[in-house]
């Protein structure tokens, strides 16, 4: 007669075994909770919990280089905008009111509440003073409405700056011709209110204070056009600096530094930020180098 099948031995945990099992289960629960918290935190601050890095989707353009406040690669490479000066102004709080609707930061930069109306006026081209020489760069000028700047006067001033013998024409054997149709222009100079310039300069952060060059767009802040910065005491010279600096980026120049105490600052130096011991200088042929 066959014997009855034996049941497998039943595993009975001792009190110590049950305690060890409970500790292991609790440890696993804690580990899972920590992993979830770290994952949620990584997602909320934009980091990659796996340790890899990603780049944002900021737009890029392919024109002149700049290696200062708006870094970029060599000419023809992808780049980010080239602000007129370093836009990082954290802690630069408003300290005084120089006049109605105006305020001054601790570093002495005058700001206004000017907001353009979003419309643009393209003034009639200023006739060139002589026959075009060398490589001709055609540009359009447009002035935003509501900023209190006469488009015709701005056009005359910009044309005079670009035609000056101290300017880029003498450095690169180039000349500049204003055209009435922006579609026929190689680059556009936009004189606009601070909020509009901030939009035109994205992804660079110009903080309502600075100007920039991004691709074929030269965006000039109307506050700087009217009130300049404390590094200058002549508004006409500062305007020449603004135009020559940003057009210099368009021509392929990056930022430079002061060459020595008492020398004229290179026009591609971020002179709005400070002069580093140099003298203010608005012209590329007078950089003291």
From TrEMBL:
Residues 85-96 have a biased composition (Acidic residues). The keyword Glycoprotein does not apply. InterPro entries: DUF3152, MetalloPept_cat_dom_sf. Residues 114-275 form the DUF3152 domain. Pfam families: DUF3152 (PF11350). Residues 46-133 are annotated as: Disordered. GO terms for molecular function: metallopeptidase activity. The chain crosses the membrane at residues 23-43. Keywords: Membrane, Transmembrane, Transmembrane helix. It comes from the Bacteria. Residues 46-66, 74-83 have a biased composition (Low complexity). This is DUF3152 domain-containing protein. It comes from Brachybacterium muris UCD-AY4. The lineage of its organism: Bacteria, Bacillati, Actinomycetota, Actinomycetes, Micrococcales.
